[in-house]
Amino acid sequence: MSRKRLSPQNAEIAEKSKVRAYVSKRRKIEIEESRQEIELTDTSPQPIKLSDIPERISSALSDTPASQTGFLPKRRVTHLPKEHTKGVNALTWCGEFGQVLASASMDGSVKIWDVFGKKECVRTFRHYEAVKDVRWDNDTSKLLSGGYNKLAKLIDIESGAISQTFEHPNFITALRFNPTSPFFFASGMSKDGVIMWDVRTNKPINQFRKFWGSVNDLEFLPTGKEILTCSDYVVRNAADKNIVVWDLDSTTPISNQIYQEAYSCTAMRRHPYKSQFVAQSNANYVAIFGLEKPWKLNKRKRFEGHVVNGYPIRCNFSLDAKYLASGDANGSIFFYDYASSNIVKVIENAHSGVSIDVLWHPVLKSVVATAGWEGGVSVWG
């Protein structure tokens, strides 16, 4: 007898709602400490030196600006070994050089990939429950990850040591470092909104409690004094509280009337140069907004052709912002010309499941990493 396949929303709810026995806070800390000891011995098989820049990247750094103009990938150049056993939620290249690639998965692991050398996973860190997001800190020496075990971990990549842990009251769904201050990061949750943390004290400094729905993504404004959030909140055929701008000092919403269509958004990205940001909508398009008050929706231009279908699909800009790329519920990767919003390339069957994330390399202008719901990670160029 065939088993009924759950929708992505119901599958995630089922994952969250598993009944667990009560465990005291003290016992949780003891368990976490024992797990960390295991992680440092069992999951750090190969040394990592972030100061070692692969030859291909160092050569590209010496190129003239004219030769650095972004262009589209032509083929799959690296199909990394499938080591994740469940879907990959997020990818992130290491800082400004992109020496290594990190991936976060529903299987409870964060993996570090040597893409340009050994072409394999060189380190694994475990949360033992689904990991929803992963981010490098501002000096790219440490990696921040968080998920369903309600702990954000700050990990020193070279040594493999877990520097700090940040305990949350609910599932962690999104992470972002403040671009103007290396000591602060924001964490979005499935309930109770967003917490701002100070890594120097290991304590929260602010919490945005007046929140609507589960946080799907975060994006700081350029000044670092405001933050954008998008959630899964939709009510009465309107999503007027879906995208919200918050003031960090007062923890109050500056505007919640930005996107008023009856669809939630799964991801947001700030334009590298223009005063704009884009949001991936469950209406199967990427919308454009102004980055300054009143954060107006561009009703004349959108990027459509891909399918979202309720999956946490992300989108990202090329380094020169000439192109915008998006994942797709049918396994393809879509590339759009940002100026015209036209589709300029589609990589079909990039993944056997849903294509969740797509991310341009910070130096190699035609190199793109992608991740799928089947657990695969690929590099195109």
From TrEMBL:
TM stretches of this protein: none
PROSITE patterns (alphabetical): WD_REPEATS_1 (PS00678), WD_REPEATS_2 (PS50082), WD_REPEATS_REGION (PS50294)
CDD domains: WD40 (cd00200)
Superkingdom of the organism of origin: Eukaryota
Gene3D superfamilies according to UniProt: YVTN repeat-like/Quinoprotein amine dehydrogenase
Keyword Acyltransferase carried by entry: no
Record keywords: Repeat, WD repeat
Pfam family of the protein (one): WD40
WD repeat residue numbers: 81-115, 165-207
UniProt-listed SMART domains: WD40
Protein name: 4537_t:CDS:1
Annotated source species: Paraglomus brasilianum
